[in-house]
Amino acid sequence: MRMKNKEKFDSKQRSQIMHWKKETSDAKLYRKIEVLDSAAKGYTHREISNLTDFSISRISDLVREFINNGIGYFTKEHRKGNSRRNLTPEQEEQIINEFKEKAIKGQVVSLTEMKMRYEEIRGKETANSTFYDFLERMKW
Questions:
Q1: Are residues 95 and 62 in the same domain?
Q2: What are the C-alpha distances in Å from 45 to residues 6, 10, 60, 71, 92?
Q3: Are both 19 and 68 inside the same structural domain?
Q4: Is residue 49 part of a domain?
Q5: Residue 11 clears pLDDT 80, i.e. is over it
Q6: 37 or 71: which carries more pLDDT confidence?
Q7: Fewer Cβ within 10 Å of end Cβ, the chain: N or C?
Q8: Which of 48, 75, 102 finishes a domain?
Q9: How far apart are CA 86 and CA 121, in angstroms?
Q10: Within 10 Å of residue 116's Cβ, how many Cβ atoms?
Q11: Angstrom distances, CA of residue 20 to CA of 6, 28, 31, 117, 137
Q12: Tell me: the pLDDT tens digits for 34-57?
């Protein structure tokens, strides 16, 4: 016999879950929505944990956040303080714009030169992966 969860999902919430489950292409978001969908169908947190490999406490957190804040909570970024950035957005733009100007003038733009400029502004050596993340973020 399946134990009832404490949470009750209304028809609007179930509709939101189904909509986002069909519409999202983000794999991480889809996994979270699967948790919500299973909870809305009456599965216990332990059963959901067995199906999804999320911990029971993480499932409780996801369900509580959905009930309190809606689906929008899962579609937003929640990190605070640019935790993965080493430069301000303005500094990043400055670097990219310098090298865009060179490229527009037909000059050769080297990644080594760009990385040296990045490190100069940052004030210390930077791992290649960090620099490439910066390039990807700037769509370079």
A1: no
A2: 10, 18, 7, 19, 43
A3: yes
A4: yes
A5: yes
A6: 37
A7: N
A8: 75
A9: 10
A10: 12
A11: 23, 12, 11, 42, 25
A12: 999 999 999 999 999 999 989 999
The residue among 8, 35, 42, 10 whose CA lies nearest residue 20 is 35
Between 138 and 54, the higher pLDDT residue: 54
> Long-range contacts: 14-22, Cβ < 8 Å, 24+?
14/40, 16/70, 16/71, 17/71, 20/71, 20/74, 20/75
Q: Please give the structure tokens belonging to residue 124.
A: 């210390």
Give DSSP secondary structure letters for the chain: -PPPPS----HHHHHHHHHHHHH---HHHHHHHHHHHHHHTT--HHHHHHHH---HHHHHHHHHHHHHH-GGGGGS----S-TT-SS-HHHHHHHHHHHHHHHHTT----HHHHHHHHHHHHTS---HHHHHHHHHHTT-
Instruction: Flag whether pLDDT at 31 surpasses 60.
Output: yes
Domain enclosing residue 16, as ranges: 11-75
The amino acid occupying position 68 is: N
The answer to whether the beta carbons of residues 38 and 51 sit under 8 Å apart is yes
State in Å, rounded, how far the first CA of the chain is from the last one: 55
